[in-house]
């Protein structure tokens, strides 16, 4: 009701923190629901470029994340550190169970419009998912048509990362969709040996040419 009378939603002028940020940080879902009903701007950013969405995933307030998603908060906003909400969730998902973390990551992913939005190191959320080894999230990215050959600032692709981390499962997932190996730059000999082993194995499963009788 106070908002109707021009109440200031900024609670800290120095940081640009708004009431929405405070409620997200403390997990006050009931108050946030009231703010949503008042049609408050859910995407307001503080001076670090963080929205209530950024705050809620950093603080692992799962119910707040779900509320913001269901209320159509923008999942594509990047803060001044170049971090998307998706990347912050991957970093912050320590106390949640794997299933719950994957559920939240999937919800965020499905609400992202700019699936190849870059962070400050010119990597994508997809690249981070590969780095973290989230196979279910990677498969969800693929269903959304992510660019699988995206490179970071030093030319590494997700395939480089998966092979370098000896993550056979992720490499096989990437190879199944026919990665463009011409985008792959030089790797250490040991990594290349593993990589070509994976390619050979996938060729037996998915031959490039039909076998002649």
Automatic annotation (TrEMBL):
Pfam families: Ank_2 (PF12796). Keywords: ANK repeat, Repeat. ANK repeats lie at residues 15-47, 48-80, 121-153, 154-182. InterPro entries: Ankyrin_rpt (IPR002110), Ankyrin_rpt-contain_sf (IPR036770). This is Ankyrin repeats (3 copies).
């Amino acid at each position: 009701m106070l908002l109707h009378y021009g109440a200031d939603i900024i609670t800290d002028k120095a940081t640009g923190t708004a009431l929405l940020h405070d409620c997200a940080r403390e997990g006050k879902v009931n108050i946030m629901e009231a703010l949503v009903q008042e049609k408050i701007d859910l995407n307001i950013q503080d001076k670090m470029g963080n929205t209530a969405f950024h705050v809620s995933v950093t603080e692992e307030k799962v119910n707040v994340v779900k509320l913001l998603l269901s209320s159509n908060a923008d999942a594509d906003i990047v803060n001044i550190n170049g971090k998307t909400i998706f990347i912050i969730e991957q970093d912050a998902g320590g106390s949640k169970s794997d299933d719950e973390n994957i559920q939240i990551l999937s919800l965020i992913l499905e609400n992202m419009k700019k699936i190849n939005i870059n962070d400050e190191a010119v990597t994508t959320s997809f690249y981070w998912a590969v780095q973290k080894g989230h196979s279910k999230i990677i498969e969800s990215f693929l269903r959304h048509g992510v660019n699988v050959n995206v490179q970071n600032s030093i030319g590494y692709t997700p395939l480089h990362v998966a092979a370098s981390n000896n993550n056979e499962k992720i490499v096989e997932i990437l190879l199944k969709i026919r990665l463009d190996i011409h985008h792959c730059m030089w790797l250490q000999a040991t990594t290349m040996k593993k990589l070509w082993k994976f390619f050979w194995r996938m060729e037996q499963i998915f031959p490039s040419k039909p076998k002649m009788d």
